[in-house]
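Q: Hi! First time doing this. I have a protein sequence and I read that you can turn it into a structure. Is that right? Here it is:
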Amino acid sequence: MNLRRLCSAILCLATVCLCATLKGQQAGRSRPASSNSPKQAQPPFYLHQYHLKEVGLDCDACHVPEKQGSVVFQRPGHDQCTTCHADDFNKEIKQQVCAQCHSVFPPTSSDDLLPFPRYKNVRPIVFDFSHARHVDPHSRVDARTGFRADCTFCHRFPADGAYATFGDHVVCAACHSKPGMKPLLSDKSTTADCLGCHQPEEIENPAAATIHGQLASFVVSGKYDQIRFSHAEHFRTQEAYHLDCTTCHYGVAASTNLASLTLPKMVDCVNCHDVSKRIASYYRMSNCQVCHVDRPLGPLPGFHSAIVKPASHTEGFRLLHADEASQPGAPCFVCHTSVEPTAVGQQQCADCHQVMMPVTSRLGQN
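A: Yes, that's right. Below is the predicted 3D structure, encoded as structure tokens:
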């Protein structure tokens, strides 16, 4: 009898547990997901790639001029989006749509708009650019500024004179709005014209970039990290030290793409800030705080001084330096003050080496 009661009790307990489990499963299926449950990561959405490649839209479907005839294009607004996304704005607002321009959801006002262009100074907006194709082969000088006319035509300086600005559509249109220019920049520009300078797919998705992934940050932002610099200070002394744009930016004129674009290196500053005796002591290379935001500790690196022999000057350098010394960016001028920064090839060689006439020529003179 006791055994029979024990078996019955066990059976009842098992039935209760089974019913509770089934109810819990049913409740779990009908209960909405808890707000504390982990959300699945949304795959990245590449706005331009989708509209250009998947939908097949032209650039002028979204990017319209600020006014008729203007080469400045306004930021796409609701008027452009609602052409295709009317339901997403009027019926059910979609976060994915709003997130392309707004930093919060739901949007509150224009104050929460993301920067435009979206990745300015973070990723290169221009796909590629050749300075070599744009520089004036005659290196003509602007009489008003005293600097190269081709440099100051595209690059302007704000009031503080710290960093030059990049050329915008207005600057580029001075040449690229003329008939026959490719790419053409006007209010009639086609998608092919836009893609002549911009590759929006690579701007949005750096993993798909070919050249952009190799670019230094200063090529994108136009600034050195943790370095303070003033072009205005150098402008004031341009006559005393015979400064021009290419005195420091001597490698830019030969740059054929963004990957080969450089800014002056520290060794380029040595020629004036360490060698020249006319520089005030405050602006000497030994005063780190003139240029560095955070003052480095320890002795000066070798490339901050002209008295340190460069690593390239090995025992065989005297006989084997022709290729290196003839490069456009060769810093021979830092120590060899008779050499100009922009001099290349035989012009540099002639300052140190006497060019000998062929023996047959000398014999013929006798």
